[in-house]
Structures are given as C-alpha cells and as structure tokens.
C-alpha cells in the first residue's frame, strides 16, 4: 500500500467479447434466472471508456497510476497505450488477482462483488478514486476535489433509511394512489452499507460520482469482519442482499472522522437511452456556458441511445476532451 499518492481504479468489461458472452450465457443457464443485472447494456461499451481514460490523463495528470480491473480482457486501445508515454501509468488487473483465495465465485458479472475486493490490488495507493467506466471528467480537477489530507471528500446528503419512511411503516398508504418508495437498487445498497458501519436509522446517500476511498479503512474492516467478504461476493449478479462497498467506506470514514462533506453534486448524469435530443443539447449547452460547473459526467446506456444522440455526445466529448489518440501524443 503506497501512501502520499492517489490512484484511479476503473472496472471495465467488453460485453461484445465472444468469450464473455459465452461465460454469461452459461452462468444464466446454470442458475436458470432472469435478472436486470444481466441486461446487455450493463456490459456493452461503445467508446465512452476511451473518453474516461483520456479525461483522466488530461484533467487529472497528478494521478500516480490508473488501474483497469477486468476479466482478462484488453481494451481496443491497449496497444496505443503500450506505445505511448503513459505505458507505465496504466495497468490491467485481472479478476483472479483480487479474488485470490475466493476463486470459487468466479466468473462474476457483479459489480458489487468486484468493488468489495478492489482494495486488494497489488501496489494500490492508500488513497484511490473509484470510477465506473462511463464516468468522464469534464473539467480539470485537483487532489483536493477528492481528499483533504487524510480525509475523503463526500458529495451527497443524509437521508432516513427506507424502512423508516412512512409508506414502508404504514402499508395502508399503498392503496391511496401514492407511489411507493423504491425498495431496491443503489439507495438500498447504500443504506445496507450504513447498517454495516453502525448507522441504524440514517444513511449518507452519495449520488453517481467518482468515489474517493481509503485502503486502510477497507483492510481494517475486512480483517475484523472476514465473513463480510464471502457474504458480499457470492452473488453472480447484483443482489439486493448486497451492500455497496464504496458506501461502506463512506460510512466508516464518517464514523472515524475521516470524511468531509461538501454541498455540491458536481456530476452531470444523463441516461442516454431515455433523454430527448432537445434536453441533451440543453444539458451540454449548460455545461459549456458554465452556468453550473460540472466536474464529472456520467453517461449511462450510451449503447442504447439513438444514433443522432450518440453522435451529438461523442462529438461534444471529442471537442471538450480530445480523442484518446490526441491525448496520448
């Protein structure tokens, strides 16, 4: 574990890889399940990952290393990386490395299972930033956007856990026409993580944003609670029985006074499969005019976007960040 430096960690999968498709189909058939967590859009990638890497190199040049965690796959741009001045800065990490001792749960198609073990990456800095592969930096950032000395910077707010909310406690409201609260998904996973850290009624809800993490907090928790690893990584696909590991670090850091909360949510999050062309153009215009300063962009399900909207976004990102080939020069 290296101190006094900051790394980035990205989980990535090539859903179009025939070997991946074969593993996925075999697992679904073996378990005889149908799950939203196995939808192809969760694994497909249509160019956003290149912008993720390009943006880190351009807007966060102070990063020591960028680790790409993957199931023995190679991004299409890997040869470009290896021939560039950044060859030593970007490293691929296979699932077998971090799942050492837990190989019986592989292959896994579950992001939460993988998140649980990221802290086991060999040579990882004490301070690291976790990003999904559809996250892209939109402006220059500094270490202080993620860490303040030994504290992690949190964006989000405190909320009451779902089970204490009105509609959950009084089921007769369910027939009133009021839409019930969501019982699943990321919020529940964050709330579950808060419970693991000792919070009973509230949880700190983080929006979709890069997550600063501290290896020492994760290492200490799992050393004292080794059973929590096996319990959280045993699911092949994302399950409501799992906690969100990044949120676990968040709540442990809050307990130990190793976190600092900032008010702003600096992410422009667009669901590309649902957004209209007008709203997309307006969102990008707002970002360009700096009417709100977005540090990060999260562009979900780009593979399901219309051809027109996909082109609008790719052209905008190319103009704002530059192509990966250009950044590698």
Automatic annotation (TrEMBL):
<dbReference type="InterPro" id="IPR031358">
    <property type="entry name" value="Stealth_CR1"/>
</dbReference>
<feature type="domain" description="Stealth protein CR2 conserved region 2">
    <location>
        <begin position="42"/>
        <end position="151"/>
    </location>
</feature>
<dbReference type="GO" id="GO:0016772">
    <property type="term" value="F:transferase activity, transferring phosphorus-containing groups"/>
</dbReference>
<protein>
    <submittedName>
        <fullName>Stealth-like protein</fullName>
    </submittedName>
</protein>
<dbReference type="GO" id="GO:0000271">
    <property type="term" value="P:polysaccharide biosynthetic process"/>
</dbReference>
<keyword id="KW-0808">Transferase</keyword>
<feature type="domain" description="Stealth protein CR1 conserved region 1">
    <location>
        <begin position="6"/>
        <end position="30"/>
    </location>
</feature>
<keyword id="KW-0270">Exopolysaccharide synthesis</keyword>
<dbReference type="Pfam" id="PF17101">
    <property type="entry name" value="Stealth_CR1"/>
</dbReference>
<dbReference type="Pfam" id="PF11380">
    <property type="entry name" value="Stealth_CR2"/>
</dbReference>
<dbReference type="InterPro" id="IPR021520">
    <property type="entry name" value="Stealth_CR2"/>
</dbReference>
<comment type="similarity">
    <text>Belongs to the stealth family.</text>
</comment>
<dbReference type="InterPro" id="IPR047141">
    <property type="entry name" value="Stealth"/>
</dbReference>
